[in-house]
Amino acid sequence: MPRFTTDPVCPKCGGPSDFVEKNTFTGQEIREYRCESCGHQFAEYGGTALWQVLHDDNIARAEAERLRAKKPWWKFWKK
């Protein structure tokens, strides 16, 4: 799993950069930075977001439980 840099530098000019935003809505962790000196924006990709890992694990666990119980999947839904 990739790690984020603690003090990101601008790939364009090498100057210090400020943290702007963190996005995880795509299932990937993306952190955006802006350079203080030249204004260039860039992003670092940190791999799969934690919520996506937990979501996938819950789906796999529910499927395993369904197969263990040998019930059709629609019997697990409550009305």
Number of DSSP strand runs: 3
Low-confidence stretches at least 5 residues in length (pLDDT < 50)? Answer: none
- Alpha plus pi helix count: 1
Give the CA-based shape. Answer: rod-shaped
How would you characterize this protein structure?
With about 80 residues, the protein is an alpha+beta fold. It has a domain of about 55 residues. Strands 1-2-3 form a 3-stranded antiparallel beta sheet. It is about 25% helix and about 30% strand. The longest helix has 20 residues.
Features:
single chain; 79 residues; alpha+beta; 3-stranded antiparallel sheet; 29% strand
Question: Could you give a short description of this structure?
Answer:
The chain is α+β, with helices and mostly antiparallel strands and 79 residues long. Helix content is 25%, strand content 29%. The chain has a domain of 54 residues.
Question: What is the topological layout?
Answer:
Blueprint: E1 17-23, E2 28-35, E3 41-48, H1 50-69
Antiparallel strand pairs: 1-2, 2-3
